[in-house]
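W.,

You were right to be curious about this one. When I first looked at the sequence I had no strong expectations either way, so I just let the prediction run and decided to look at it fresh. Below is the sequence, 314 residues in total, followed by the output.
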Amino acid sequence: MNVRRLIRPSAAAGAVALGLVAVSACSGSSAADGRENGRLKVVASFYPLQYLAEQIGGDHVAVSTLTKPGVEPHDLELKPRQTAQLGEAGYILYLKGVQPAVDKAIEQADVPHKTDAGTLTELETHGAGHGADDGHDHGEAGGDPHLWLDPVKYAEVAEGVSAALAEADPDNAAAYRKNADVLTGKLAGLNTRFEQGLKNTATKTFITTHSAFGYLAERYGLDQEGIAGLDPEAEPSPARIKEIQSIAEKEKAGTVFFEPLADDRAAKTLAKDTGLRTDVLDPLEGITDRSRGRDYFQVMESNLTALQKALGAK
């Protein structure tokens, strides 16, 4: 898949430098102990990791995120205050390769407990589809970072986060373990619903602007075809448009999916030119009022419904 948007880290270095000054200015005892009102201060880089930290940490953590709702996480450029926020954390959870500005700031933050979620499961390399421009690597060693869209891999990460939180805050290790068990149980149920709901379909091919669904497609025996591959807002080549038209006809793929946080013009133009339908398939990089659900599980259930409709589930 190799799906991360191409990033312009122009202001990242300056923000990091200014933020480090801010860290040193506010690194007194309250900041240095990594706690807020007795709770472990956790900084997550963007929504899927924020959700894990909140669900596993429960009442014992104070979770903040660097990527506010509505902000496309790949494009994030940190403000000095956000970089300072990292230096005050008791625990940092991020996914290396998704947000270069965040990676650089975390590398320089003097925080003993930090986890790259990509090290908690096996990252894989997925193609954007037959013929799509797929020549850029991202994620660790070119791995596809969108692991949270596979409930099984997301559960593996949850297990690792539980252990990391226990190491950062041993007094509440039992609570983190218990909360992780509840969450992984819910993810197992979600996986079962996807397996059953997508087992018998008229077609196995779905078309999407953002090729973020490689893990999901692989898990449930589907084929993802990305319009432009890497960048959900990129203009697809005429050759790729023609190829997508051919694939749609051959594989009886009647729907083009777009996502809430990205420009939907490519999907709607393709749909208009080919007579295909459009619908939302959410890569869950953030929750906004445009999301079809208020949290990870609700949006994933909406994704399942959309795929069942598009693929002709029986």
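Here's what jumped out at me. The radius of gyration is 20 Å. And, maybe more interesting for your project: Residues 49 and 132 are 29 Å apart (CA to CA).

Coffee later to discuss?

I.
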